[in-house]
């Protein structure tokens, strides 16, 4: 199954993508994770993109499109993928269609995680991420067993620079302007399914798995 998770900052895209990727045994492709790795490793891509990310702006389409194109074309044999955080603009969506067509694939479903600003702010303010394996926690909703330490690999947890309230609001305004047109784009293609992102992780996962079954996607 080839799936896109669409939704505002803090909708829970990364959290669900990690769970679904294990359950469905399909690749999780997060442009946010790829870009943060590049910044951490001080690569040329990281140096070019760091400022956009810290400010909560979108990284230019040409850079993100090149990353996703390379990843998809390099993994043609995969049984499926979950795109998390991509596409985010109409230009990215068009390029995705062209790239998939070029490798004989198509998108099966786009899940729109409709989420309130209040939920988003509460989640992102409390988010902590593992420096080693990128596991996502929340200080109240999904706390690690030992404060500040990853349950999975024992590395320390950090708070993302773009998880400050002002930057969260900036990310929302970018989302409203650049990404919400994709809801219409995928509705017209008849592959958009809307689910509440405000639900807790397990409930949301159960609903998504039931939806995939109903649509005969798994
Ligand atoms: P990116 O990393 O993609 O950020 P985002 O889209 O703003 O999404 P988030 O990662 O903030 O939230 P999420 O929905 O994944 O929520 P999560 O599961 O972590 O992008 C970052 C930046 O990179 C962008 O601003 C841009 O600069 C650049 N970029 C990336 N892709 C790009 C692209 N395609 N084009 C251009 N630029 C791009 O959960 C959040 C918190 O809530 C966590 O603490 C989690 O534990 C908790 N939580 C999750 N689900 C639940 C739940 N159901 N119930 C309770 N708590 C929950």
Please characterize this protein's 3D structure.
This protein has 218 residues and is of the alpha/beta class. It is 49% helix and 15% strand. It has helices at 13-24, 31-40, 44-55, 61-74, 90-102, 117-125, 165-179, 181-188, 201-214, and strands at 2-6, 27-30, 81-84, 109-114, 127-130, 136-138, 157-158, 192-196. β5 and β6 form a beta hairpin. α1 crosses α9 (201-214), α4 runs parallel beside α5 (90-102) and α6 (117-125) crosses α7 (165-179). The longest helix has 15 residues, at 165-179. It is globular, with a radius of gyration of 17 Å. The chain starts with a strand and ends with a helix. Bound molecules: BIS(adenosine)-5'-pentaphosphate. BIS(adenosine)-5'-pentaphosphate is lined by residues 7, 9-15, 31-32, 35, 52-53, 56-59, 64, 85-86, 88, 92, 123-124, 126-127, 136-138, 141-142, 162, 171, 199-201, 204.
Which ligands accompany this protein? BIS(adenosine)-5'-pentaphosphate
In order across it, which strands form the biggest sheet? Answer: 2-3-1-4-8
Oligomer: single chain
CATH architecture: 3-Layer(aba) Sandwich
CATH C-level name: Alpha Beta
In helices, the fraction of residues equals: 40-55%
Enter the CATH topology name. Answer: Rossmann fold
């Amino acid at each position: 199954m080839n799936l896109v998770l669409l939704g505002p900052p803090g909708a829970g895209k990364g959290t669900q993508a990690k769970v679904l990727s294990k359950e469905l045994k399909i690749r999780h492709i997060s442009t946010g994770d790829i870009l943060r790795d590049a910044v951490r490793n001080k690569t040329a891509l990281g140096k070019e993109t760091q400022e956009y990310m810290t400010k909560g702006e979108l990284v230019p389409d040409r850079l993100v499109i090149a990353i996703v194109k390379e990843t998809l074309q390099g993994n043609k044999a995969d049984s499926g993928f979950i795109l998390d955080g991509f596409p985010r603009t109409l230009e990215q969506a068009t390029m995705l269609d062209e790239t998939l067509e070029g490798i004989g694939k198509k998108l099966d479903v786009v899940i729109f995680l409709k989420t309130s600003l209040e939920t988003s702010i509460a989640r992102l303010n409390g988010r902590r991420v593992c420096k080693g394996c990128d596991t996502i926690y929340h200080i109240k909703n999904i706390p690690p067993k030992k404060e500040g330490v990853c349950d999975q690999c024992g590395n320390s947890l950090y708070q993302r620079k773009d998880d400050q309230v002002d930057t969260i609001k900036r990310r929302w305004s970018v989302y409203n302007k650049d990404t919400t047109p994709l809801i219409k784009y995928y509705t017209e293609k008849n592959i958009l399914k809307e689910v509440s992102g405000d639900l807790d992780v397990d409930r949301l996962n159960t609903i998504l798995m039931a939806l995939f079954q109903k649509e005969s996607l798994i």
